[in-house]
Amino acid sequence: MKILVTGSNGLLGQKLITLLTAQENCQVIGTARGQNRLKGDFANFEYRSLDVTDAQAVEAIVSEMRPDAVIHTAAMTNVDECESKQAECRQLNVEAVRYLADSCAKHGVFLLHLSTDFIFDGTAGPYKEDVPASPISFYGQSKADAEQVVIQQAGLQWAIARTILVYGIAQDMSRSNIVLWVKKSLEDGKTIQVVDDQWRTPTLAEDLAMGCWLIVKHKAEGIFNISGEELLTPYEMAQQTAAFFGLSTDTMIRTDSSKFTQPAKRPPRTGFDITKAKTVLGYAPHTFREGIAILAEQVAAQQS
Ligand SMILES: NC(=O)C1=CN([C@@H]2O[C@H](COP(=O)(O)OP(=O)(O)OC[C@H]3O[C@@H](n4cnc5c(N)ncnc54)[C@H](OP(=O)(O)O)[C@@H]3O)[C@@H](O)[C@H]2O)C=CC1
Ligand SMILES: Cc1cn([C@H]2C[C@H](O)[C@@H](COP(=O)(O)OP(=O)(O)O[C@H]3O[C@@H](C)C(=O)[C@@H](O)[C@H]3O)O2)c(=O)[nH]c1=O
């Protein structure tokens, strides 16, 4: 099976390259902006530079490579930046998806698109797959619009994997995540305020990559919730992170969303019901504690 991954320098992208190249009979094309930042020797792997906002470049690579499937991970994932750079956000999070959906439909390629809990307003989590979108941020709106682009593309064989608060470690990361920033801040004795009135089902990046592979392997069509299973607040996640690494929580302040605000609104209570992915795909995510342990091993390996 030949699989093309967009955004292969990102957290999910790197985990996908690692997982897919370890599968038998899997040929993998990693694509990202500029140079490949993922070091290592991977079997049946080829890297191509691809800016997904370039419609001609998207069509050229899909028609040349003729993959069986595209996994589209590239996106503007800085939620606050999406609020201040709205045109850029739409170009990357919506228009680029249109280019990919067009090319995939034209060449008979299965498209797996990555989406988010931020398409919801967070008043009714945990969510199942069939709840209508109700975004409260520009990022959330862009991802909800992108889903519609995929769903409405004529002649396209598609799936959407929705995920939540992804954590893990990769090489040269362009964005941090809750486990990494809590660990680093507490190690540095830096004061952090962490909210205890938002709820998420955080997702280990390796689990998300596995969920994507299961979808593509089975060419399972439709929307799938691919996240962790435990509904936790960021404060609970931060406490578990501190406990795992034996870090003092003296500089960690428990707060709530009325006092801790970010430029883009965050939905209060999301979380996913992952019954469909478990039943249809055999998806089986790690617990949050197991996930931290996996990340910790990788941090130790990077440091040795
Ligand atoms: N991280 C999370 O908590 C969540 C993520 N998601 C979704 O999952 C997907 C993967 O996220 P994740 O891997 O964590 O995000 P990352 O930010 O780690 O990766 C996104 C990648 O997209 C790349 N990119 C940006 N612009 C372009 C472009 N024009 N052409 C090609 N590549 C580009 C970035 O490149 P560069 O590194 O060079 O900037 C980056 O490597 C996204 O679609 C996101 O919306 C959904 C819910 C939660
Ligand atoms: C930075 C920060 C965040 N938080 C909380 C708010 C939030 O619920 C949670 C994570 O905040 P972050 O800013 O790290 O991440 P955030 O941008 O909220 O993460 C989102 O990313 C996009 C891409 C998604 O699609 C979503 O699923 C979601 O995971 O932690 C604090 O309590 N204190 C802090 O200092």
TrEMBL record:
Source organism, top-level taxon: Bacteria
Enzyme class: oxidoreductase
Gene Ontology annotations of biological process type: dTDP-rhamnose biosynthetic process
Database matches in SUPFAM superfamilies: NAD(P)-binding Rossmann-fold domains
GO MF: dTDP-4-dehydrorhamnose reductase activity
Keywords per UniProt: NADP, Oxidoreductase
CDD domains in UniProt: dTDP_HR_like_SDR_e
Domain RmlD-like substrate binding: 1-298
Biological pathway: Carbohydrate biosynthesis; dTDP-L-rhamnose biosynthesis
Catalytic activity: dTDP-beta-L-rhamnose + NADP(+) = dTDP-4-dehydro-beta-L-rhamnose + NADPH + H(+)
EC number, as in UniProt: 1.1.1.133
UniProt family annotation: Belongs to the dTDP-4-dehydrorhamnose reductase family.
Job of this protein: Catalyzes the reduction of dTDP-6-deoxy-L-lyxo-4-hexulose to yield dTDP-L-rhamnose.
UniProt-recorded name of the protein: dTDP-4-dehydrorhamnose reductase
